[in-house]
Amino acid sequence: MTNLFIRDVNHHWRVSYRQNGYPHVQQGWVLPPEQKEAFDPFILMAEDWFKRGTFSDHPHRGFQTITYVIDGRLEHIDNHGGHSILDAGDVQYMNAGWAARHAEEAVDDDLIHTLQLWLNLPKSLKTTTTSYQNVYVEDAPVVPFDGGQLRVYSGEIAGVKGPMDSLVPITMTEITLKEDSEYEHILPANHNSFLYVLAGSIEVGSSKIPLSKTDVATLTFDETSETMSALRLKGTTRTRVLVYSGKPIREEYIAHGPFVMNTEEEIRQAFRDYHSGVFGPPAVK
User: Fold this and answer.
1) CB 192 within 8 A of CB 183
2) pTM
3) CATH no. for residue 127?
């Protein structure tokens, strides 16, 4: 493929964690919310270890979530009658849209370990119908290559299309590399992108920046381009890494509590609607 934009690491850091005690045992910010302007269209990503009772019934409006289960069993309950259990490697996509009310709980006495990404919606889509989609690990297509494989959850990557049906254009790929193996990951050049190292150690980008478990990197991109880009990866040990990308929305917005809207008044209205019952009954089994 010719005329590829060659990506490099823009910034990188290691996630730090705080111990919260029971039931929200531990939490770290993979994408810190105070830097949300740099991550557009992404808002934040949280890594959580929690027991049952941490994320019981609660509302959302104006954005989407992508929840990846690292370990344990995650029980989803929503107030439209939805109920499901996700295992390691499964992903749930939620379009909160106008009025989501749900619970995300550990099953029984599990200690659940998750990554939850908040993905913004443009103003024109903030009042869309709430929806949920489970993407089970066995339904995400796998593409082998010499020295590893990739699993595509969202977007068109390596000749396959992931099953996630996001309202805005994004990609989500899990890449596994053997020690000393290399891979060139092809992404739209105009997508803002980041990666998170789940296991092992890796060299990333044209500068071969070394990263290891719990490291995060944002990547260079060309927002004006309509071509593709290449991200060079080399596993220095056995490595597993998640790569996300999305086209920036470039709208001013406010994230406050469980709501993401474009103005302060819209945030206040969301709280009024929740307390007046617009979001419907609690999400309980």
Assistant:
1) no
2) 0.97
3) 2.60.120.10
* C-alpha distances in Å from residue 78, one per residue of 45, 159, 173: 22, 34, 27
Q: Does residue 282 have a cis bond before it (omega within 30 degrees)?
A: no
Closest residue by Cα to residue 249 from 91, 121, 141: 121
Q: Domain for residue 276, yes or no?
A: no
Domain count, the chain: 1
226 within domain boundaries:
yes
Give the pLDDT band of residue 285 (cuts 50, 70, 90).
Answer: confident
| CA–CA gap between residue 151 and residue 140 (Å, rounded) | 6
**Separation of alpha carbons 74 and 121, rounded Å:** 25
For residue 142, give its domain range: 5-246
Euclidean distance between CA atoms 63 and 119, whole angstroms = 6
Q: State pLDDT tens for residues 89-112.
A: 999 999 999 999 999 999 999 999
Mean of pLDDT values over 16-38? 96
Which residues fall in the annotated binding site for Fe cation?
A: 58, 60, 102, 104
Q: Which residue positions form the known binding site?
A: 58, 60, 102, 104
Is the per-residue pLDDT at 1 higher than 90? no
257 in a structural domain:
no
Instruction: Extract the tokens encoding 177.
Output: 């590399």
| 135 within domain boundaries | yes
